[in-house]
Each structure stands twice: as C-alpha cells, then as structure tokens.
Amino acid sequence: MQVFGNHTTSKGLLLLTVFCATHFAQHKRSFGGVVTWQSAQAITDDSDVDLTGTLVYAYNFGATAEEFFSGVQDNPVQAVTVRGVTFAAFAAPPKYFSTVQSITIGDVTLSETPGYLNGIGTSAASGDFLSISGPYQGLVGTGIRATIYAQMTLSLGGLETGRNYRFQFWLNDSKNDFDFNRVEANGEGSSAEIKANLSNSVGDLGQHIIGTFTATDGTQAITFDGIPDVIGGTSFYKYPLVNAFQLRLEASGEVPEPSTLSIFGLGSLLSVYRLMRTRQKQS
C-alpha cells in the first residue's frame, strides 16, 4: 500500500490527529456547566444550610449602613454564622439611593443592567419569621434586589475546572412586598422557580434551593429573573431578589481536564498511525 508512503500524507495524518484530539476536548467541555436544580424547599430552621463537601465561600446580601430618609436605615447587612457556616456581608446601597450596577467581593460579582442594585430589608416582626433562630433571621432578613425589572447575574469565580460544585441560595420576603414573590434562577439553560413568601402573608417565609454543576472553566454564571404576575390581561412585573448564597466543593466526581483528554486522544491516534506504518514497511 502507498497511501502512507509519502511525507505529505504523514503530515496530513498528524494534523488530523491533533484536530481530532482538540475537537474531542472542546466537545467534551461544551456540555459542562449546566446547573441541575433540586426541588425548592421551605425555609424552616438552621438545618436548611447544606453542609455537603467543603465550603468555598458564602455571602449574606443586604444594604450598606448608610442612612436615608432622615436617619432611617433598612436593616444593614451583617456577617452571620448559621449551622457553622459563616456568610460574609455583601452590601449594596439602600433602595432609592443606589447608582451601583455591579459589586465585586473576592471571586464573586453581582451585577444588573440597565437598572441598579438595591440593598433592602426583608424581615418581619411577626409570624413564622420569628420562629427561626436569630442568625437565620439575619440571613433571610436582608437581601439585594434589581430595579427596572431587570435581570441580576451572579458570577462565581475561582473555580477548578472539572470539579463538582453545590450552589445553594435563599429567597425570602417576610415583609410581603409583592415585588418579590417569585424568582426564576437560571444556570446555563437549566432553570428553577423559587418563592419568596409561601402564603403571601406578612411574617411568612420563602424557600431555598440547591443546584449542582461541573465547572467547565474558572467562572460560573447564575442569573435571576423576577416572574411577572398576570391579572386579567395585564402583566405586573416583579423585581428579582436574592437574600444569600453559599458555594460548596463536592469531595468526589473529578473529571479529566481538557488537556488530559487531548493528550489521551493524540496518543491513541499516534499509536494507530505507528501500527499502520509498521504494516506498510512489512508489506
């Protein structure tokens, strides 16, 4: 056989080998990063906080301590520890006074456009809100909302490619401000609905939810949209809201890095090429 009997053909096979290995790695990556959502669960007590795997970071959303309306403050956010997990404060300016569209702390960025991010209070002085622990009240009693019915995007950085993560966030509005009754969370095409107040009653609690994903690179984006209510033929738009979240790294489930996949594919195809060259010389 002469099909492999010249340098041009050999070079072409090597180029094909590299292309196939690289394409295989890229194809493998394209299916990662989709968030698989569990069912949303009612906020009940400290045991809601997931302890699976290892904590990467956790944040409690809310307002800065700056004053508005003649000294009135809307529940300034503080760091809280619930079930041994410390949620650091992540603050946005109070409502009506914010001109901030993006906030970055460490590896985390929360952004919104074309409106602004507002820190607000979501606590109540009655109902089931008072039945949860003080630290848990601090976690779900403050939050950050978007304005102008826009979408909020949470960018989770510092990830390890190929590792499995658990993302848990809370949505609660015990004040029963109907702007925040439902939010849709979306992670690379997979979405889930979560409620801020299960009975639409002052003092009632909302929900929390866990989503899992495999990191395809160093960053994962989660988006939040307020779900509009339709009464008759009129849509009443709602602002997206998030109270807190944590990100945890699962102990198992690593997958090969793309570079490893490329090397594996390249090595396999080169082995086939050498075998065919050997058979050619022997013929």
Characterise the protein shown here.
- The chain is of the alpha+beta class and 283 residues long.
- It has two domains: 33-249, Jelly Rolls (Sandwich), CATH 2.60.120; 255-283.
- The protein is 19% helix and 35% strand.
- It has three helices and 19 strands.
- It has helices at residues 7-29, 134-140, 258-282, and strands at 36-37, 41-42, 54-63, 80-82, 85-92, 102-105, 108-113, 117-121, 142-146, 151-156, 164-171, 182-187, 190-195, 207-214, 220-226, 229-231, 234-236, 241-242, 244-249.
- The strands form four sheets. Strands 1, 2, 3, 4, 5, 11, 14 and 19 form an eight-stranded mixed β-sheet that branches.
- A hairpin with a 2-residue loop joins strand 6 and strand 7 (108-113).
- The termini are close together.
How would the blueprint of this fold be written?
Blueprint lengths: L6 H23 L6 E2 L3 E2 L11 E10 L16 E3 L2 E8 L9 E4 L2 E6 L3 E5 L12 H7 L1 E5 L4 E6 L7 E8 L10 E6 L2 E6 L11 E8 L5 E7 L2 E3 L2 E3 L4 E2 L1 E6 L8 H25 L1
Parallel strand pairs: 3-5
Antiparallel strand pairs: 1-14, 2-14, 3-19, 4-5, 6-7, 7-10, 8-9, 9-18, 10-15, 11-14, 11-19, 12-13, 12-15, 16-17
Helix pairs in contact: 1-3
